[in-house]
Write a structure and sequence with these properties.
The protein is built from no helices and seven strands. With 61 residues, the chain is an all-beta fold. It has one domain.
């Protein structure tokens, strides 16, 4: 929602991007299943995934 993705931006597999974030640069080296958020985007949490059955975002602490 209202994210801006600049040319050349790369994300890791299965990542979640927070609302109103600015994606720029190469973040493909981050861990898969992570939460990226901010302006500019930064790694907030790892081991995060979206459960499509009940539409909740959960994580393993």
């Amino acid at each position: 929602m209202k994210c801006t993705t600049l040319k050349g931006a790369r994300t890791p597999d299965y990542c979640i991007v927070g609302a109103a974030s600015l994606l720029s640069g190469d973040h493909a080296g981050e861990a898969p299943r992570c939460l990226l958020a901010g302006n500019p985007v930064r790694l907030v949490r790892t081991d995060v995934y979206r459960d499509s059955n009940d539409d909740k975002i959960t994580y393993n602490p």
